[in-house]
Design goal:
- The chain has one domain (about 1-110).
- The protein contains five helices and no strands.
- It has helices at about 5-25, 30-50, 50-60, 65-110, 125-130.
- The termini are far apart.
- It holds the Pfam family DUF2304.
């Protein structure tokens, strides 16, 4: 019969192994991996030593210690969602600026539409067209 301590420790270790596998496969990049490895370690440590919640709850004034785990989990999820939105906003701004730069380059050097190469913007004639 497994106790909840062993179960939560095994879950934390399994989560850490999956995260490391994702990093090795290049599906998860460094800063994101550190966040998830930290979460996996927290699950493993707090699952192994549940008395830590009792002590923390006493210091924080929470009368029912198990609810402290839920409060911490919600707080960490909110922080994670906020950092994801910040990163997404940064990426969208970067993509918008790249699109603007591409539009400016295409305005200076329009692409050919009829299959022929675009005229040289420096005004030099193509040697094939001269002869």
């Amino acid at each position: 019969m497994l106790t909840y301590q062993i179960t939560s420790t095994v879950l934390g270790i399994a989560l850490a192994v999956v995260i490391l596998w994702l990093v090795r496969r290049d599906h998860l990049h460094g800063p994101y991996a550190m966040w998830w490895v930290g979460a996996a370690l927290a699950v493993a440590v707090l699952g192994s030593f549940p008395r830590v919640f009792d002590v923390l709850a006493g210091y924080l004034g929470v009368s029912y210690p198990p609810i402290l785990a839920l409060i911490l989990a919600f707080a960490l999820l909110m922080i994670k969602i906020l950092t994801m939105d910040l990163e997404r906003s940064r990426q969208e701004r970067h993509i918008r600026r790249l699109a603007q730069r591409l539009a400016m380059l295409e305005a200076r050097h329009p692409p050919a539409c009829d299959g022929r190469p675009a005229p040289d913007p420096r005004g030099e004639a193509d040697p094939d067209e001269i002869g």
